[in-house]
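pinging the channel bc i need a second pair of eyes. not urgent but kinda urgent?? the chain im working w is below, pasted from the shared doc
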Amino acid sequence: MLDAGTERFVDHAVVLPPAALATAFDRMVDGRSTGGREASRAARPSAAQDSALTHRVRAALLPRADELNGHHGGLHSDAKAAVCIAARAVLKRGRLTPEQYALLTGPFTDLGVPAPPHPADAT
C-alpha cells in the first residue's frame, strides 16, 4: 500500500537520534504558520494508506519510546507526529506543490533523510 520511496523515507526518519527528531518536530511546528497546515491537508492519504503509514511509524518508534522521552518529555509522541506528517507528504507528493513538499519534508531531508524528488523536479 505504501510505495518504496515512502517506506525508505520512514525507515530512515525513525532511526534519527533523539536530538534530531526533536529538531525536526520543532521545525514542523514552526512551519505550520507558513503554509504547513495547508500543505498537510493537501497531503491527506486515504484511510487505508494512513493506517498503513501510521502503523509503520508507530511500530518503529515504540521500541524507542523510553529513549526518546528520556531526551525530552513527550518526544516519542512528537516524533510520531512529525514523521507521519512528512511521510504523508512523500506518499502524496504528486498532490503538493514543490514548495509544500519541501516545507513538509525539509525538516528531515535537511538532517540527511532521503526523500524522492517532487514530480515537478523529476522532469
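so The radius of gyration is 13 Å. and Helices lie at 4-13, 18-42, 47-61, 65-71, 75-91, 98-109. — does that match what u expected or am i reading it wrong
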